[in-house]
Structures are given as structure tokens and as C-alpha cells.
Amino acid sequence: MCARFDVVTIFPSIIDAYLGESILKRAVQNGLLDVKLHNLRDYTTDKHRTVDDYPYGGGSGMVMKVEPMFNALGSIGADGEPRRKILLSPQGRTFDQAVAEELLREERRIMLICGRYEGIDERVRENLIDEEISIGDFVMTGGELAALVIIDSIARLCPGVLGDDESSKEESFTWGILDYPHYTRPPDFMGQPVPDVLLSGNHARIAEWRRKGALRRTLEKRPDLLDKTALSAEDKRILQELCLQKEIIKSEEDDELDKGS
Alpha carbon of 75 to those of 40, 71, 97, 106, 209: distances in Å? Predict the structure, then answer.
């Protein structure tokens, strides 16, 4: 077993539906991924299975109650297996590829706690969890999609999950930069051909073309990443060449604009 999760949610069917398709389905079937779903409503004590209530002090919306969460985490932990308890929250550290790789190395089971409504009783945050993680600076209706993002990104790092283990090593952010352009059949579509180098069979030239394509794409779309990754001397040479080309193109465009005016 490579990746092991518990997900605490009031909508387990959302998680279950995604796990029942494609790569993650095969990972579960092959014993590489284990995800146990826990319906928070099963840990309530009233006949209405209430998990939320009005906020003290007034205000709009509802707040998730502390008692069901306390009961759930206590019951789940009764099996004695250590768990890293993570609340999915906009207040947490931002999830990225480095965090995915960190959690992949985690020896404990990973418990993902999905919030809903306006928030969760502060006593849950203060007493029941180990940390908070956010998948970005935006608001969603619940933590289920965030849980799936984390499960998916970690599972695909597990050997055997993708079938070809090299796939995950050449993806965006695994290199520290964006991915290179991809092509498949047909070799020519409506006058748009696949680059000749990819049809050459020369693996050294293909690797060079891909690295250059990845650096070009990163320079154009996410230049901030270039300051965060280790670049080889060859990478730096390629970037200097790309920047020079960019300056030449811009200069030519400016000249055309001047002529037009």
C-alpha cells in the first residue's frame, strides 16, 4: 500500500464517485491506494443527525459543530493506527507539488477533514487537528473537492499507479517548471505538422527540444517558477537565448507599430 487516507465528510458519495473512475479506481483495485470514507452524520447523537448550528454572536450561515467531529475522530482513531489529521481550510498552508511529495512520504495515515457551511467550530481547529491545508485563495462550498485534489496528486506519485512511472517525473511542477508541449497522431492536422524532431527517433535531440520547450513555456506563462528551481548551466544558456529571441521579436513588433503610425 502506497497512499492511505481517511476522509471525514457529510457527502461521502462525492469522494466515492471520483474514486470509482479511471486511474484511481485501478489504484484502489490493485491495492496501491486505500481511502476510507467516514460520514460525519454517523457520529451525531440526535435523531436529525445534526452537524451544524447557528453561530454564537450572530451572523449569516451555519457553523459545523464540535461534538460530531470529536466523536468521529475519537472513533476513527480507536483502531490505534497513527494519523496525520489535516483540516482543509483557506487558512492553511498552500498545497503544491512539494507538499504532495512530503505527504507521500508520511508514514501515518492521512486524515482529510472536509468543512462545510460558513466554517467549523474553532475548538476543532484548536484541539483535534494537526495542521490546515489550502488548495488556493478562493472559496468553495466544501472541502470535498480539495480532498480529491490532494488524494489524486499524491496517488499519481505512487509507483505503479500511472503504469509508466516515468510519466510523473516529467510533469509540470515535478521538474520545478511547466511541462513541455505534447503531440500525438496524426502527424499533420489541417496543415499543422508535428515538429520534425519528435519524429526523428533521436532521443537526445528530443530530450533537448522538450527541455527547451518546457523552459520557453515557463518563461512565457510562469516566470516566477524559474526563481524557485535549480537550473543547470545549459538551462541558463537556453533561457538567455529565449530572452534574446523575445527581445528581438518585441523590437520587430515595435518597429511595425512605428511604421503603421
Answer: 11, 6, 31, 22, 54
Say if CB 114 and CB 151 are below 8 A apart.
no
**Secondary structure, 3-state, 86-97:** EEEEEEEEECCH
The single-letter code of the amino acid at 168 is: S
Asked if 120 and 229 sit in the same domain, the reply is no
**CA-CA distance, 9 to 128, in Å (whole number)?**
15
Among residues 136, 155, 174, which one ends one of the domains?
155
**Rounded mean pLDDT of 203-209?**
96
What pLDDT digit, counting tens, does each position of 54-81 carry? 999 998 899 999 999 999 999 999 999 9
The pLDDT, as a whole number, for residue 52 is 97
Residue 257: pLDDT band (50, 70, 90) is: confident
Asked whether residue 138 falls in the same domain as residue 194, the answer is: no
The whole-chain average pLDDT of the chain stands at 92
Q: Could you identify the residue written with the cell 533561457?
A: 239
Sign of the torsion angle spanned by Cα atoms 86, 109, 152, 145: negative
Domain of 237, CATH number, reads 1.10.1270.20
Residues 102 and 150 in one domain: yes
Please, which residues have CB within 8 angstroms of residue 91's CB and are 6 or more apart in sequence?
Answer: 132, 134
pLDDT surpassing 70 at residue 260 = no
Range of the domain at 12: 3-155
100-124 burial code (b ≥16 CB/10 A, e <16): beebbeeeebbbbbbbbbebbbeeb
Of 133, 134, 37, 123, the residue nearest 76 (C-alpha): 37
- Give the integer Cα–Cα distance in Å for 72 and 70: 6
Is this structure's pTM higher than 0.70? Answer: yes
Inform me whether the pLDDT recorded for 169 exceeds 60: no
